[in-house]
Amino acid sequence: MIALQVPDENEGSVVYLKRGIFQRFDPKMPPVPVVVDVSRSGREYPEEFRSMVPFTVLHDNVSMYVDQLWGAAPDLGATMLYACFPSFWIDANRNELDIDPELIEGEWPVPLQPTVSKRGLGLLKSKSRYGEPVHERKLTVDEVMARIENYHRPYYEELGQNLARLRSACGFVYQLSCHCMSAVGAPTHPDPGEARPDFCLGNINGKTSTAEFIEFVKASIESLGYSCRINFPYSGGELNARFGDTTGKTESIMVEINKKLFMDVTTFGRKPEFARVQSDVTKVLRAVVERARERMPKP
User: Could you tell me which of 158, 159, 170 has the C-alpha nearest to residue 33?
Assistant: First the structure.
């Protein structure tokens, strides 16, 4: 892993990275047990990546600008982990056994557990959000295992180590798994054709955080004038299921922000409203950080 000093507006911060895999932005002030993980905003497509659909269709699946929306994390004392690779290469928010066996050439060495992959949206996406097939051919077992070992597992290892370190030091940790969502549900999603709220929070239907924490975040969002729902249309993914619990020791929630608030989905450009939304997201994060500081052991 490489440590780089970041210049200009991020002066004083250090980025730890594995090239093409992840970047970790450490706190620039006394740290708090808050980790922001951004797993689906990566845009470093490996040279071997191939698809039958236009790049614009693939890029529509990227959680664009989420790393920027939550970029104040280090300034507030939180840690931010960012996956560099795109979710169409391998989805960091899926279980490594959630694979459609029809995508694999050969026999997987252990029984697969396809769940979301039945809709084409598993570890290896077989469809775009609008249902178009995306792969030119089946992938070999060796190709898929290489993606798991070189991309998926290193991200989980890094995230897990940082959550464990902060939990050990403070007795608890908050994990915000951050994404963005389309304004209207796509055909392959749980709410096809339905208009979506400004924010959606998820804790796997009460399994990965306390009700108090997710309701606190919801109230923080709504106090700024936004609409917010819990556990629909999304309830969270593998990143929450892997680490979160209801004991209060690792509070893990998903945060989805509606793209219509800050970006033009046709050009992928930022809207003029981006700065306001970014400022409001920072206010929500500051509220979480302040809650964490209040819970931290006193010297």
Answer: 170
